[in-house]
Amino acid sequence: MAQDRLKLYNRLPVLRAERGLSRQELADAVGVNYQTIGYLERGDYNPSLELAFKLAEYFGLPIEAIFSTRPLKPLSETLIANKQEVAL
Amino acid sequence: MNTKPYSTRVRFSQRTRRRLAIGLYLSLLSFVLTWLALGGEVARPLTWVFMGLYAVLGLTLVYATGLLDGMPSRYLDERQQALRDRAHRLAFIPINYFVLGTLLSLNLANHWFQEPVFIALVSALGLVIFTLPAVIIAWLEPDPVEESALPSHEVAP
Q1: A50 burial class (0-12, 13-18, 19+ CB within 10 angstroms)?
Q2: Are the beta carbons of A1 and B90 separated by less than 8 Å?
């Protein structure tokens, strides 16, 4: 039975790949089942605020750099855009 | 105490799990229909076959769902707990009607409603079914927060 819920986009697969982490390692780090990481990455599950904070803390990034209600651009593109904004 | 989220070694696809679930209830239906159609000693060997099948499929399904259903919360993460609680919520209403329907059918066959004990217990069951979730919510929900009770730094300007 499908539930109406907000579609949440995330950068978890990229962040995990950048750090060479398996789903199991990330799951162990934030205290969830490794399948939960898979469901988060696939967008099948939206995390609680507590889990979102744990993930943000683990990656050392603000929550909005990991999760967004809009499709996320590549992190490098976002960084360049932010730098250009600051330069202006 | 180990509080790490639990995982079964083998994972089953959703398609396999759904097939197992359908097979499980088909074996149960076969058991009931065989019993109703043949009855007594004639049906017994066949019903044992269907019950055996039900047990095997049921145990496989419990394993296939990662034993989530009966697992204490400390072994489950937030997603698994939400899934387990949702499953119990969805199962609650059909099971209620099934139990009430079974008791009322038995009454029609045996006229148990003439017994005060039966009347009292079935009435209590029927009434509890409709109020128990609300009672649990009433018990667990904290006091409401009044707007005026918020500290000034928590109120948006």
Answers
A1: exposed
A2: yes
